[in-house]
Amino acid sequence: xxxxxxxxxxxxxxxxxxxxxxxxxxxxxxxxxxxxxxxxxxxxxxxxxxxxxxxxxxxxxxxxxxxxxxxxxxxxxxxxxxxxxxxxxxxxxxxxxxxxxxxxxxxxxxxxxxxxxxxxxxxxxxxxxxxxxxxxxxxxxxxxxxxxxxxxxxxxxxxxxxxxxxxxxxxxxxxxxxxxxxxxxxxxxxxxxxxxxxxxxxxxxxxxxxxxxxxxxxxxxxxxxxxxxxxxxxxxxxxxxxxxxxxxxxxxxxxxxxxxxxxxxxxxxxxxxxxxxxxxxxxxxxxxxxxxxxxxxxxxxxxxxxxxxxxxxxxxxxxxxxxxxxxxxxxxxxxxxxxxxxxxxxxxxxxxxxxxxxxxxxxxxxxxxxxxxxxxxxxxxxxxxxxxxxxxxxxxxxxxxxxxxxxxxxxxxxxxxxxxxxxxxxxxxxxxxxxxxxxxxxxxxxxxxxxxxxxxxxxxxxxxxxxxxxxxxxxxxxxxxxxxxxxxxxxxxxxxxxxxxxxx
Length: 504
What we know:
The chain has helices at about 1-55, 65-80, 160-180, 305-315, 325-335, 420-445, 460-470, 485-495, and strands spanning about 80-85, 90, 95, 100-105, 110-120, 130-140, 145-155, 185-195, 200, 225, 260, 265, 300-305, 325, 360-365, 370-375, 450-455, 475-480, 500-504. With about 500 residues, it is α+β, with helices and mostly antiparallel strands. It is elongated.
């Protein structure tokens, strides 16, 4: 009897221990499932964060592209394994996720919301077969303090389709920076149209060297505001007018200056007191006048208002004659963001100092052609140019004057036919202009200015290389073979210039 009782007592202890282990095992199982749930929830949150940032970077793209970019990053981070059904997918740790919902509460934000169900291992014993997971993230566009100068090529080769594409592309960039806001604290943008020279505005006659502007020299027109390249190396500096004043641009009349033998022939800009047609845009290359080759569009200095910027971009016009002198366009862009020009454009606080934290300085330089000194035929279209003495190498007037003036100091051939010597002189001057542009790119980057460059509808390898080397980074150069690619280039630059902030 005593032995049997002892055995019964031992069986009771074992039963007691077994019963006491059940809650312990349940607690361990619960802890394991909760740990799995925490890991899955963390992975889901990471996936929606990545999706929101990817979609946010594509704000300016069509909705389908924006959602596709977000979905790719969501599934890449959630670990898609296989398609589970038409509306669900199997992901991390076997969790079944619903396709994330992507919406845009406003023009500046993108929201991604995802739900998933994680199968339990131990909790199903107690009737709970899965855990519900949910995560949401919102990416908000945020533009930091920035002074951005857009130097835009408006030479004759941009007519008519190129200029239309440029207007759309530049507006895209502004739209990305501002979103639905009219102003953003710390953001200022300048628009710098350029061709063979730049137009600083007729209201800045005080920037000219004393005694050089005579109203009579422009009659029956008036000085439009364009300036010539400054000498003594100041075509490559950001010196203000007080240090290096400008010379007003003026293309002297060629009337009665060109001869064939002893017979007077038409020149390449025959204007007079009774005949100036430079304001007639329909004449294109056939117009004449003292401001021929001077862009109609003036430089728009740093501006805060989105509507003002868009209006100026929409009004951009092509400038005919002269050529493509990129270094002068780049230099004028520098004028608009250089602290040495503070107060000169009208705002006493702008441009701000270089290197100030929270205030980036950026230049976007765009062209559709290689640097060129245009040589338009004298007289009727298609006629050969006839220099006044039958020997002088010459071409159109630009910011560097006439080719025959040789302001760039180029040593040109003195033998050979006139046509051959003219072609050689133009090629050498084009190379000198490119050298000046590259040197200025180096100066800007040394100042901490970020430079983006764009070539449009251009197949010239040397010019592509020039603009590629000018950009601050290899990815800061864009070759755009067509109008769609041009808009994509401006869009990508805009997306890079804005930052995205994640919110919950």
